[in-house]
């Protein structure tokens, strides 16, 4: 179950890993069926489990057991890292700051790749730090599946 307490603890952990300031307002997290999530993100069936919109809303597959399953929770950690990236980078953009209406900043391929890589590393570090044993960590990693593929820029 996704609670305010869980979100606060995850944002605190992410801040510790990245140095990003914790935003004053937590993101809106919307749990929806995977088919709807895939349609919104990919416009077709795909394996997406969660996504952070350019406006900072987080969409998650409603079948994930976030808060009770470490692997599912790590997926939220990944998306919360993107949320914090949006806030960190929007603060320094004078165009966004003057409008104050959106967190969206256009990303080039290198920026997107760097942010995705950072979110993946934060996700893995959180899993490692919260696993009770190295064996459990190894099992959790295997449940995550293959390493992500980043498009070449």
Descriptive labels:
three-stranded mixed β-sheet, 7% strand, mainly alpha, 56% helix, 153 residues
Architecture overview:
The protein is mainly alpha-helical. It has one domain. It is built from six helices and three strands, in the order αβαββαααα. A three-stranded mixed beta sheet has the order 1-3-2. Helix 1 packs across helix 3 (70-91), helix 3 crosses helix 5 and helix 5 (109-130) runs antiparallel to helix 6 (134-144). The longest helix is centred in the middle third of the chain and has 22 residues, at 70-91. The N and C termini lie far apart (37 Å). Residues 93-102 have low confidence and may be disordered.
Query: Could you give the order of the helices and strands?
Result: HEHEEHHHH
Structural class: mainly alpha
Total of helices: 6
* Count of strand segments: 3
Q: What percent of the residues sit in helical stretches (DSSP H or I)?
A: 55-70%
Which whole number gives the mean pLDDT? Answer: 88
N- to C-terminal distance:
37 Å
Order of adjacent strands in the largest pleated sheet: 1-3-2
Largest sheet, described in full? 3 strands, mixed
Based on CA inertia axes, which overall geometry fits?
globular
Low-confidence stretches at least 5 residues in length (pLDDT < 50)? Answer: 93-102
* Integer tally of domains: 1
Gyration radius, rounded: 15 Å
Strand % is 5-15%
